[in-house]
Fold DUF4199 domain-containing protein.
Amino acid sequence: MKKLYLPLVIAILLTALFFFLINVMGSSPGDTSGNGNPAIILMMLLVPLFCFFIYFSYKFFTQVTHQSKSLVYMVIAIVAHLLVGLVYQIYAFRNYKKLLQDVYYEEFLTVDYDYIDQITSFLSIHVNSQYFNINTFFMFLSLSMFIPVLIIFAQRLIKQMMSS
């Protein structure tokens, strides 16, 4: 089991570094940006890291959790964290759009809502700080633990149903 810890710690630190770099690659409200979002390259690197987390979380949880009761508690805790994190993200994103509107109004004495919607679209450089922050980092880790816990829970449930 100790062999699992070092790769997990390295992967967590690497993921934290990617989240930090993507966050700082964003632009501040009121700033103009060039063409494209250079952080997309780092975003793509998070996909294999996510798969890595799922694989090692699965190995870890199969060794650690022997009771289905503890899996249920983990699922409840992870779902609660993901829901609270998601609600917070929605609230923070709406506040950020309002901030952009205020900055735009101060500069031009009008608000171009189409422009605000455009710069807050998914891969825009203006929203890097909204999608890659400390909250989304922990949500990323929680989701990568949630999937293997559900798989283990389903496997045990199927095994129990087959044996009875």
Remarks:
- The mean pLDDT is 89.
- Residues 55 and 123 are 27 Å apart (CA to CA).
- The chain has one domain: 2-163.
